[in-house]
Amino acid sequence: MPSTVLCPYCLEPLEGGFGGACPHCGKSLANHNPEGALPLGAQLDGRYTVGDYLSADGDGLAYRGVENAARRFVLIKEYFPVTLCNGRSPEGALMPKQGREVLFKTSRMDFKDLYDDLRGLTPATGLSQILDVIEQNNTVYAVEESEKGMTLSHYLTLRSRNLTPAEARTLLQPVMEGVTLLHKAGLVHRGICPDNILLPIDGSARLTGYGTLALRTGGSELKSQLYAGYAAPEQYSASEFSGRYTDVYALAAVTYRLVTGQVPVAAPQRKVRDSLESAHSLENGVPTYFSQVLSCAMRLDPAKRMQTVPELMSALTDPGVANAMFERGDNQISTKKILGASLVVIFVLVVLLFWSLIGRVGDGAAPAATPTPAPEQSAAPEATPDGDVLIIPNLVGRDYETEIKGSSLYQNYRIMMTEAYSSTVEEGRVISQEPMAGTLQTQPSPIIQITISKGPLMVEMPDIIGFTQDNASRLLDAEGIQYRMEILQNDGSYAAGCVAYCELDGEELIKGTRLDAGTAVVTVYIAGERGDSARTPSAE
What we know:
The chain is of the alpha+beta class. The longest helix has 28 residues, at 335-362. The strands form 8 sheets. It has a 6-stranded antiparallel β-sheet, covered by helices on one side. The chain starts with a strand and ends in a 10-residue tail after the last strand. The protein contains 12 helices and 24 strands. The chain has helices at residues 101-121, 152-158, 165-184, 244-260, 267-272, 279-282, 288-297, 309-317, 319-327, 335-362, 400-404, 469-479; strands spanning 5-6, 13-14, 43-44, 48-56, 60-67, 72-79, 85-88, 94-96, 130-136, 139-145, 149-151, 197-200, 206-207, 390-391, 414-420, 430-434, 440-441, 447-453, 458-460, 482-490, 499-504, 507-508, 514-516, 521-530. The protein has 4 domains: 5-145, Phosphorylase Kinase, domain 1, CATH 3.30.200; 149-317, Transferase(Phosphotransferase), domain 1 (Orthogonal Bundle); 335-453, Trypsin Inhibitor V, Chain A; 458-539, Trypsin Inhibitor V, Chain A (2-Layer Sandwich), CATH 3.30.10.20.
């Protein structure tokens, strides 16, 4: 027991210990945690004070907590598998069920090994930090950082429109980098979903919600916790193996939710009848290539799915990478199939010509030499001179004025152009095209629809200081500005429920400032009721 314990609400020292009310913040210090959970004020290794009980899953119980020496809030997860435990002794030690002692011990080792690995891996971009791992009370406790902010689920409820593909990529970029780091360390998350992605006030998105393999697998010895729409099909059976591709499925599913506004159809339902609509069909502003990448990453068969997060990141970011991937056969007709089809067409034409000549000889016409295809015909070129067989070229990334317009390379095609803003593609270059590169065409002068970048969309920050949350949201949405809203602790200086101030990259933002609507994410601070505390991720 430390010489001085801290209030789990205001972090001020409690000279008289727990009981009654805190003399500093007035909050009750009476234990109201449920039976079986650690009581309010319990000490772990003399270094952490247990606060309010938060939640439970198949792995254990979660609490708010305090790191005594650093005087900061933390999150504490206690290994407490309800399927293997008989409760807690009067001294606080967990008691495994009779006949389940060995399984309890091995599962506890899995829990400790996971959080030991995570502690050695974090802090890292996109991953919530594990601060400590403690063995006590015949169990294990994992101590995690506590960030002020909100979950991605809550953030989505504050928005009145879907995210654009560029916005979704920007928001999830750090999370994808973090998952890549997990995979390099031999770890798989298996629980990626909007509930487990945090948006801290002063940083980029971070992934939390860590859990053991048994927790994220249906039919295991623990009570499983799977997230419908985001859990991959292999997670619903203990007889199937999960891997890096399992997290690829979940990340694609989260991206799908961001750009369409809809949670994907749950994997078990898809296995009965796959009614998952493409992102493009639900939201026509989603480019076809982007939609196809998501479909490829969410295939039910893990062997046919995109396998790594870097592949997913590259394909979602660069249409050229996606097109090349589809040309390899990852999601579209492969180049070999295109060449094969071209050869079949040429062979049929030759046979028809041959029989027509035989018919002419039978009618008394002078015989003619049987035509032999030239060597270059059998290799199926980009375009035949007569336009009978054409393979759509890759225009993505090319400069329209200098490389496409007026070029003789594309004289067999009709190129139609539209323009769109882009924060990632240089002005004047092709963002996307329809049909995709490698598509086989037989009609003369096929149309290629291309989208040319107009560069980033620059907008001015409107004056929203003092506006209500709803009115501020409408103004920002009208300008196409990305934003997230946070509750600000209010000492009475601000009008409750109204915008106190705004920030961009940690700097206060004033009206009239020009922003790149494709990449800038403005943090809008809404004043809470007087005396309210700022929200933490665990409160969502």
